[in-house]
Each structure stands twice: as C-alpha cells, then as structure tokens.
Specification:
This is Spore coat protein U domain-containing protein. The chain contains one helix and ten strands; from the N terminus they run αββββββββββ. By secondary structure, the chain is mainly beta. It has one domain: Immunoglobulin-like (Sandwich), CATH 2.60.40. Strands 1, 2, 4, 5, 6, 8 and 9 form a seven-stranded antiparallel β-sheet that branches. The protein has a three-stranded antiparallel β-sheet with strand order 7-3-10, with no helix packed on it. The radius of gyration is 30 Å and the shape is elongated.
C-alpha cells in the first residue's frame, strides 16, 4: 500500500509541474521582459519628541509663555506637512477641584503665537518635516501662555492637545 501511495504522489507531482510549465511556441525571441510597479502613498509620521508631559506650569498672574514640548515630523513627500491641533478641554486648562475651574490659554506653534483653541481646531500648513530613508525628523516647538490672573481657584489644572499630521 505504501508503494501505491508513493507512485500516486510522484505521478501527481509530475502532472502538477507539467501544468505549471509554459510552452515555448516561438523560438525566434531571444529575450523576455517583465514589467512591474508598486505605489507608496504620501504619508507623514510624528512623535512628541522627548518631552510630552509638563507638570510644573507656572499659573500665576505673570502669564508666562511656557514650553510644553517638541513635535517631530517626517514625511515621504519632500515637502512640509499640515498639522492640526485640538484641545481635549476646548482650549482651557481644567482643574481637578470641585468647581472644575478653568483657565484659558493660547498656543504658540512654530513662532505663531496667540492661537486660541477655544474656537476649535487650528491648522498649520507649513510645519517643518524631515525627509529621506533614514527617518530624520524636523522639530517644531510648542508653547502655551496660561491666561491666569493670580486669583484662580486652587487645584491642578491640565489639558491635552492632540496633533494630527498629514502630507501637503
């Protein structure tokens, strides 16, 4: 029975190989051509750099402009990127106190200051982007200016800004 099974497998293998082989119908051609193509869609990638969590903001009447991090961007288009900024709290630092107290703030992106996220999202169409196969990024500084008056309720105030990046 093993001999019959082996014979059957060999016959199947020979038949399969013959079915996959191409027949040469003309012997006059001396070359063969193979065409192939693929597509890589435009894309950008981002990270929040080395610092993306600030816990020691100065929230007094000085209204200091303060660094909140660096946005690192890479795109495969050779062009700068569009970045879109949204606030989880609608452009406010919100306290963890019983009143859920709020302090408004403005955002600075790449030297453009006084961006108000209370009106919704902000789009920046000239965000620097690195290019190339090494994945090197270009950095954009992000800063906020808390509009505190020095008489705000006690509590820890926070917000989260989400940045979405897309190719130009």
């Amino acid at each position: 029975m093993n001999t019959l099974l082996k014979t059957l497998l060999v016959a199947t293998a020979i038949t399969s190989a013959a079915a996959n082989a191409a027949n040469v119908t003309s012997t006059s051609a001396s070359e063969a051509k193979f065409s192939f193509a693929g597509k890589i869609d435009p894309m950008c990638k981002t990270s929040s750099g080395t610092t993306n969590s600030v816990t020691n903001l100065v929230l007094d009447a000085s209204q200091q402009v303060q660094d909140i991090g660096t946005l690192d961007v890479w795109c495969n288009t050779g062009k700068n990127a569009t970045t879109e900024y949204t606030s989880a709290n609608g452009g406010f630092l919100v306290a963890d106190n019983a009143q859920s107290s709020k302090i408004a703030y403005t955002l600075t992106v790449d030297g453009i200051s006084d961006i108000n996220l209370q009106t919704g999202k902000y789009s920046h169409t000239a965000t620097l982007a690195g290019t190339g196969i090494s994945g090197d990024t270009k950095a954009t500084a992000l800063k906020i200016k808390p509009l505190s008056n020095g008489l705000n309720d006690a509590g820890t105030y926070s917000d989260t800004i989400t940045v979405t990046v897309s190719p130009n």
